């Protein structure tokens, strides 16, 4: 009698914000497609409505294959976290401090785990938990291989500093030259909280996580050879830091069926798509700064003027509040009725959460003005859309350097971080025209799209890696 093959069971632990949840659920879907049983552990309550809606759609699409487990967080006293009022950051901190509550959840699982995949923000806090587990642990890194190289290399930089307590403001020089990676990282591109005087939680997290990456069994990256071959190789060949676990380029993680919204809940998407249907191929600019960046009040008017003057139609998603649950103002109150009607003559402006992929994949969309969040960047690449990047914070300047270097995007470097100054409407119009009319960008974006589709398609690098891992886990079961 043949013994049934052990089922492969993978658990995922996500953190906060769509920028972490979407890639987690897309990777989870890849494992579902390969016949694995999946458990999704969700920190509750979620920060945004967009997150809870997406989780509900996944679970109702796969009622039998996905087990959803709530990870009820211990509320955090915000006064115990220094210098932040960012609700996403507070959630990371709450998750990090509630992690000990995971042990009973994990030991109550009905089938043993083949692998545990945890979000990038949990590299260190999860260690005491995984030490008690028998299955391998993987980090799902939500940023680029360039950012992972920075994260891994920071501990080497700190160790080379002779000060008793090395501080990033001192050991980060004018530029960081990471071994194996040609393009240096200028000091001005480093995520701003890392270079603040004193200490903050971001610095603590990076410094703690940097040496701890080695304690995991692998890192999943939403990236691929043609986009970041050099950094992926440098990481995997031990050039950046010796002893890192395998870094798996399983990207680009493409949108999945379950992300589709019901007809009844489509809201503004229906008419955005109708408007796009009326436009010529490649003639519309899509503008969005991601799901957690509120457009600065003093910048909104110039953004509007820039779009009106750029000569192209547009879809502009404005976020007035960082967290969607708190949106309470109308766009007209902020922009004024005159500007609103001028905007509506030329394009579409909304403040709702949109289905970004549906916009990017529409043939009328030719360019994307983005803050450069890694998901937005990889989604645009997957759809062959040219990019104008305006970094607002975090790792986004790393992404800007990478895009400029690979020829699929331009970087409005002179605008600095989005938080630094008000960029005038005419400057914005100029840069949009430059992106939209640039034929080399269009060709390069098309080539990168083909490479992206190959990487995530049948027989591509993602499939090869996932199949190999599944076989390995089965052997070790
Ligand atoms: N997103 C979306 N609709 C919106 C805003 C964002 O679908 O109105 C999605 C976007 O497609 C991406 C994610 O939310 O998958 C945002 O992640 P990213 O890394 O680009 O930026 P973040 O929001 O984390 O800064
Ligand atoms: N952040 C922080 N402390 C943390 C984690 C994040 O202050 O422990 C802030 C920081 O300002 C950073 C931002 O959150 O710039 C977003 O971090 P990241 O880009 O890594 O998250 P993502 O955009 O991928 O959600």
Question: What strand order characterises the main sheet?
Answer: 3-2-1-4-5-8-9
Number of alpha- plus pi-helical segments: 19
Bound compounds? uridine-5'-diphosphate
Q: Based on helices, strands and strand pairing, what is the structural class?
A: alpha/beta
**Total beta-strand segments:** 15
Oligomeric organization of the protein chains: single chain
- Main beta-sheet annotation: 7 strands, parallel
Mean pLDDT: 94
Q: What can you see in these coordinates?
A:
- Pfam families: UDPGT (PF00201).
- GO terms for molecular function: UDP-glucosyltransferase activity.
- Keywords: Glycosyltransferase, Transferase.
- Belongs to the UDP-glycosyltransferase family.
- Helices cover 43% and strands 14% of the residues.
- The chain contains 19 helices and 15 strands.
- The protein has helices at 18-33, 49-61, 87-98, 102-107, 127-130, 145-159, 168-171, 201-212, 225-236, 268-277, 297-309, 331-335, 337-346, 356-360, 374-383, 396-406, 425-437, 439-456, 461-476; strands at 9-13, 37-44, 66-72, 115-119, 137-141, 175-176, 185-186, 218-221, 247-249, 284-288, 313-317, 348-350, 365-370, 386-389, 409-411.
- The strands form three sheets. Strands 3-2-1-4-5-8-9 form a seven-stranded parallel β-sheet. A six-stranded parallel β-sheet has the order 12-11-10-13-14-15, sandwiched between helices. Strands 6-7 form a two-stranded antiparallel sheet.
- The radius of gyration is 22 Å and the shape is globular.
- It starts with 8 loop residues before the first strand and ends with a helix.
- The structure holds uridine-5'-diphosphate (UDP) (2 copies).
- One uridine-5'-diphosphate (UDP) binds next to helix 1, helix 3 and helix 8.
